[in-house]
Amino acid sequence: MNQENPKSIKVWGIESGRCMRVHWMALELGLDYEVVPIRARSGETGTEVFTKLNPKQKIPVLQHGPIVLSESAAIINYMAETFPLPNDFYVAEDAVGRAKLNEWCYFIMTELDAHSLYLIRRHDSLKAIYGAEPTAVASAEEYFKKQIGAACKRINKEGIYLMENQFSIADILLTSCLDWAVAYEIDLPDLMRSYREKVHKRPRFQDAFAINFPNGIPKSVLRSA
């Protein structure tokens, strides 16, 4: 594991669940980093300076010296492999362990984030841009409820976190999706509610929330009335 000095780290983006993942991971690792508080759909991601960093014009973005990364899951995975992990973090011992961790990360990012929650965001919260599709939104909500059951079974079987009894980047991804679902008024199973409440008690989660949502959760991340 690379233990180079983290002083050159800069995180671009606040006020989104995906940015929250990066701030949370950085704080769990105890990194000293700079926050560039730009927001989505504010015009700030379309500037020449930011577009040079990320032509996709999306947040979050991580700068670590000459390295520039976008996509929240890729960023926190890079952090986990680059900096020393806290004692309570899951560390894969071999290829099987890494594959199991990646399995859950990919599942969360595809089935829960992209295929469910972001579809709701596009056609409910952002319907003025992408168009209202109430049938698709209702279907995505039911799909989320079905898929979250897989995580329930994993936690029931394995322990208190997705990777047995150790916290991992998969838990950061999962918790951010649970928070997103709650913001969208989606009912969670009892096990997921308890899991979410437990994870929220981590001090670094609370610190990251204050950084990412300095004025509380904005209306832009909630469902439309």
Could you provide a short overview of the structure?
By secondary structure, this protein is α+β, with helices and mostly antiparallel strands.
In words, what does this structure look like?
This protein has 225 residues and is an alpha+beta fold. The chain folds into two domains: 9-88, Glutaredoxin, CATH 3.40.30.10; 95-201, Glutathione S-transferase Yfyf (Class Pi), Chain A, domain 2. Helices cover 56% and strands 7% of the residues. Strands 2-1-3-4 form a four-stranded mixed sheet, covered by helices on one side. Helix 1 (17-28) packs across helix 9 (203-212) and helix 4 packs antiparallel against helix 6. The longest helix is centred in the middle third of the chain and has 31 residues, at 95-125. The N and C termini lie far apart (48 Å).
Characteristic terms for this protein:
2 domains; Glutathione S-transferase Yfyf (Class Pi), Chain A, domain 2; Glutaredoxin; four-stranded mixed beta sheet; 9 helices; alpha+beta; globular; 225 residues
Radius of gyration: 17 Å
Terminus-to-terminus distance: 48 Å
The amount of helix comes to 55-70%
Shape, per Cα inertia axes = globular
Please tell me the overall pLDDT: 92
CATH architecture descriptor name of the largest domain: Up-down Bundle
Poorly predicted segments: none
Counted by DSSP, the helix tally is 9
